[in-house]
Design goal:
5-stranded antiparallel β-sheet, mainly beta
Length: about 100
């Protein structure tokens, strides 16, 4: 069985972390203590362009949202430059009401 999703700890500002995806519904969550004015957003690739999945998965503080995309590749984008974001970012598939 292939497992999709990723946990990212203290991602750098201005970073993009690509994640292989199963083309279904998932959970996007960010929890931390110091956001330093960053925005953490989830994007999917349409053709050759990375596009925000939606406003619900563009976070500037602790939060979570469910999302659905048929894309086989998604990424977590962290805005800004400088010190890492002090947070954990989770992107996990949701199957039968369970996040893995």
């Amino acid at each position: 069985m292939s497992y999709y999703g990723k946990t990212i700890t203290n991602p750098a500002q201005g970073s993009n972390t690509e994640i292989d995806w199963n083309g279904s519904t998932g959970m996007f969550a960010v929890g931390g203590s110091n956001f330093r004015s960053q925005t953490v957003k989830l994007q999917h690739k349409i053709g050759d362009t990375w596009v925000d999945i939606g406003a619900a998965v563009s976070l500037t503080a602790n939060g979570s949202a469910l999302f659905t995309t048929a894309s086989p590749l998604i990424r977590v984008n962290v805005s800004g430059s400088g010190d890492p974001l002090v947070a954990v970012v989770e992107v996990k598939p949701v199957v039968e009401n369970k996040a893995y």
